[in-house]
Write a structure and sequence with these properties.
Length: 358
């Protein structure tokens, strides 16, 4: 699709009272009702929204993103009444989860209601969540329809955590962007299938496996995460290379000393091959990289002590390497606990499976 429209960029202070009647939100809601695309912030990443009841509107999402059409979208709701417009049936076990985690980064897969546009999901299930962001909620409520929204990036690129990322990817392809500042969580919502027993995590995300375990007791995880090639992931989006920077990223897994040594060796090799190099470091290791002066770009994605800082910064850092034109990167790995599970899932995808254990 060629550039067709002038994309409006609207700044909105998410802390003002009565966001729903602020003029940019009213205009954005109007665009949604007219079947146009509007990008908006959520607590996880920016979403690219369309009226979830309109096939024609939702179809535009796939064109704008260049998204494979077999990859279903998440429907965002603004209140509990909308839940029943979106899902044909809500199992009992959904309620304690909703009580504890909504609004928030948990997407529940439920039996799909008939009104949902076929373009949202061709499966029997629909992913639903109530985002924990005042601007997202105001937009949905003002639009008076549930909003189908994937992450607002071009397919394959890291998800956007700032309006500027959305602009870089989708300027000229969508009607408007609501700029509400940086998103907080930084990785996408957890996708939990409630149509199977026990419920199964199809994509790790902002709500951790440990948190779900506290409410549900038993919670399974899609075996495809253990990276066994014979398992096709149940969440269609999980099978694509995703979140990837333009350069080549290699992850090095091992004790801090051995990993550092291996990373330096890889960087030396890449430099010998004439590539520009970068390291995705942490607050704990950035000093050593600056001192050894080996790489062209050193960026920290946060502190190893605080996985939430890493989740929040990860995508922005991957995009920064692209902006710097870095062709070869190395990065550390993290324990797959708590938010570390979502972080490692995204990192492994960004690296396209290039992981070296030392
Ligand atoms: O945090 C988020 O979830 C963000 C914000 C914008 O809400 N949205 C997001 O959407 O990450 P997207 O489209 O980038 O990822 C949705 C994921 C994909 O992996 C998709 O395959 C999966 O959820 N999914 C959606 N509906 C599904 C369904 N009915 N069955 C299986 N997987 C589904
Ligand atoms: Mg996405």
């Amino acid at each position: 699709m060629d550039r067709i429209v002038e994309t409006k960029l609207w700044n909105v202070d998410k802390n003002v009272e009565d966001l729903e009647s602020c003029s940019q939100v009213v205009d954005a809601a109007h665009l949604i009702r007219e079947g146009e695309l509007v990008a908006f912030p959520t607590e996880t990443v920016y979403g690219l929204g369309a009226n979830a009841f309109s096939d024609e509107a939702v179809e535009k999402i796939y064109h704008a993103k260049g998204r494979p059409s077999d990859n279903p979208l998440i429907v965002h709701i603004g209140d509990m009444d909308q839940l029943h417009e979106v899902a044909r049936e809500v199992p009992e076990m959904a309620y304690p989860l909703i009580e504890r985690f909504w609004p928030g980064p948990l997407t529940l897969l439920l039996p799909k209601a008939e009104k949902i546009a076929t373009q949202v999901t061709k499966l029997d299930t629909v992913g639903v969540r109530m985002p924990d962001h005042p601007l997202a909620l105001a937009l949905i409520r003002a639009a008076r329809v549930p909003i189908a929204a994937p992450s607002a990036n071009r397919s394959g690129r890291p998800s956007p955590t700032m309006a500027e990322h959305v602009r870089q990817d989708l300027d000229g392809r969508i009607a408007a962007i609501l700029d509400g500042g940086e998103t907080g969580v930084g990785v996408e919502s957890t996708v939990l299938d409630l149509t199977v027993s026990p419920p199964m995590i199809l994509r790790p995300g902002g709500i951790t496996r440990e948190q779900l375990h506290e409410v549900l007791g038993d919670v399974a995880i899609d075996p495809a995460f253990e990276a066994k090639a014979e398992h096709v992931p149940r969440s269609p989006g999980m099978k694509y290379t995703h979140y990837a920077p333009q350069g080549e990223l290699w992850l090095v897994d091992g004790s801090p000393e051995q990993a550092q040594k291996k990373m330096e060796e890889l960087i030396r090799e890449a430099k010998a091959n004439g590539l520009s190099t970068g390291v995705l470091a942490t607050d704990e290791t950035i000093g050593a990289w600056r001192k050894n002066g080996l790489v062209d770009a050193v960026l920290s994605c946060g502190s190893r002590q605080d996985p939430s800082s890493i989740a929040q910064l990860l995508y922005a850092r991957l995009r920064e390497f692209d902006d710097l034109g870095i062709q070869y990167m190395v990065g550390e790995t993290f324990p797959k606990q708590g938010l570390g599970m979502a972080v490692m899932n995204r990192l492994e995808k960004a690296a396209g499976g290039r992981i070296i254990s030392v």
